[in-house]
Amino acid sequence: MGKRALFVWSSACFCAGCAAGSVLSRPGFVFVFALAASAFMAVFLKKPKRVIAILPLILALGCFYPSLYGSFAEADKTLSEPAVLSPLFYAKEELSGEIRRNLSPSSSALALGILFGDKSGFSPEFRENLSDTGTTHIVALSGFNITIVVSFIGTLFFFLPVRLRPLAVALGIAAFVGLVGPSASVVRAAIMGALILLARNSGRLVDIKGPISFAALIMVLLNPFVIADDAGFVLSFSALLGIVYIAPRLKRFLFKEEKVGCLKSLFTECFSAEIAAAPAIMVMFGSFSWLSFVPNLMIIWTVPAAMAFSFASGVVSFLSYRLAFPFSAAAEAVLSYETGIIDFFARCF
């Protein structure tokens, strides 16, 4: 086993151990079993393969880490508070107000959920409908949403030289963090965006394994309960893995082209993220139903348009409500369609 593979598997084992330690009421059984497995491998495996004995040992350490983490100090809440002094945070509040003014209550609530992860405007019935249809992920700041942001910014700066586009996207991600507020979930989403950017500019799929593992390891070290308590963490990595491993193969299968256009690439990446995140969505956001894939398929392709038109509606209205009207009308149409699909299938389920 090479050093890269050993690091990837070690990170995965540690994260799995932390998940077991934070979810199971008696993780000690997993801890003892992992230690026994490590000792067995160290004794009976031949020398070249003996190195894998470290994996169950790391898993055992992961099981113990949540208890150790909880006994020392409370989780740092610094990143959980919005950056009140940030001008971008005030810009977000003003932008949210413009969007509420331009759109109907139900459409503006969904728009703010998709753009900023703000679910404060959702009614209890709509929250339940999102859960029933397995579409809650569209209003979670996860890898799915940041994929759209990265793809949109990359498309927006198509005129830049190829070497400068990653810089433009990176600056866009930084602005997104400042606009939404640097909460833990947004910082995580920004890390996902950086990894997506790296994945899209990587010559080989294997190159992204190390950065993904490193990012996951750092997040779990900072908070071992993130796997069990933060659905966005799981959705972010699931979506990213879909972009890295599913999207390239899906592009070749669907389009039979070496170079895929921006719109095709955007659709394929979003759809691949949806496929990869689907199992986690079913587990975390409600009962499993194969039918939930139908509303997701009907909504997934409209989310980028909803984000773009809603954002444009709010920004342009600072200049003129008349100029913003076409964007507001388009946003209202797309968001009403999404809300209608969610409500319709919630009644069917």
Provide keyphrases for this structure.
349 residues, mainly alpha, 3 domains, 16 helices, globular
Short description:
This protein is mainly α and 349 residues long. The chain contains 16 helices and no strands. Helix 1 (3-23) packs across helix 3 (54-72) and helix 5 crosses helix 16.
Structure notes:
The protein folds into 3 domains: 69 residues; 114 residues, no CATH class; 144 residues. The chain has 16 helices and no strands. The longest helix is centred in the last third of the chain and has 28 residues. The relative contact order is 0.12.
What is the terminal separation in angstroms? 47 Å
Question: Per DSSP, what share of the residues sits in E-state strands of 2 or more residues?
Answer: under 5%
Task: Note the total helix count.
Answer: 16
Rg, nearest Å = 22 Å
Average pLDDT rating: 78
- How do the SSEs run, as a string of H and E? HHHHHHHHHHHHHHHH
Global shape: globular
Please tell me the total number of domains. 3
The chain-level structural class is mainly alpha
Number of strands: 0
Largest sheet: number of strands, sense, barrel closure: none
Low-confidence residue ranges: 75-82
Helix fraction bin: over 70%
Q: What topology emerges from the helices and strands here?
A:
Layout: H1 3-23, H2 28-44, H3 54-72, H4 87-102, H5 105-116, H6 124-133, H7 143-156, H8 165-180, H9 184-200, H10 209-222, H11 226-229, H12 231-255, H13 262-284, H14 293-300, H15 303-316, H16 321-348
